[in-house]
Amino acid sequence: xxxxxxxxxxxxxxKKIKSDIRERWNNRLVKNxxxxxxxxxxxxxxxxxxNNIGIAKAIAFAICAESxxxxxxxxxxxxxxxxxxxxxxxxxxxxSKTTVTTTVSTVIAEAASKLVEExxxxxxxxxxxxxxxxxxxxxxxxxxxxxxxxxxxxRDGNRLVVVATKDKVxxxxxxxxxxxxxxxxxxxxxxxxxxxxxxxxxxxxLYYLSSTGSEHRTAPQAAMVNEQNGQPVVAKPMYAIFKALxxxxxxxxxxxxxxxxxAGEEGSIQFWQIDFFRLSV
Length: 281
Prior knowledge:
Elements: H1 3-11, H2 19-30, H3 38-49, H4 55-68, H5 71-86, H6 104-113, H7 140-145, E1 158-164, E2 169-173, E3 178-179, H8 184-197, E4 200-209, E5 215-216, H9 219-228, E6 236-247, E7 250-251, H10 257-280
Antiparallel strand pairs: 1-2, 1-4, 2-3, 4-5, 4-6, 6-7
Helix pairs in contact: 3-5, 4-5, 8-10
């Protein structure tokens, strides 16, 4: 069964779009302008809010998108429903001109076959082993007062390594899994920075900011806080750079931690300067 046949077999079974689907469409997709970004908009919603989405809800979002006049967004949700139900990504009919959204599974396939030419093997997407957290053996005050240790803010999110090139950005979890982009805006900023300074690899933390400033591991958690405080439910994705592993054409995995942090700080400043410039114009 191809995707067109699947859609036809499922579309008539949905008689009415539930109010909670309409609410999420308006408060999450429309608020973020994802409804204007075609299949990428659907992919972005699924990356932030669709980790445990079911078949029925994916179909409901597809039909909602169709009713609102956004067929490319709808196709992204149809493909997700197909993938959940069949366990395989749908094949697009040869004559179809429909744009199909890029799923996490296709990103993984791309990352495995298209490695970054200039990077060594241990810094290829999906192969980067990050430093693991360990319990500190001494009291907190010792590390605060010692000149041998540096402190960085603890972010309440998920570890995310970024490999940014002039053409593409790869995202890798602590467990070396390739992830979908966390936000189109962040992806565009990273691409712009890579085009200015060249390929870089940074280690950091992805988290979501609520309207009260609290940090959360997922977008739904931050959105819940917003809703409880009577604020727009859209959660703001944030990426905090801790250190650089490749910067200015140099492998920093053999350098000191201080050098990695210094390079990460330099990259962070340029990254946020680009963002500030965009917000200022």
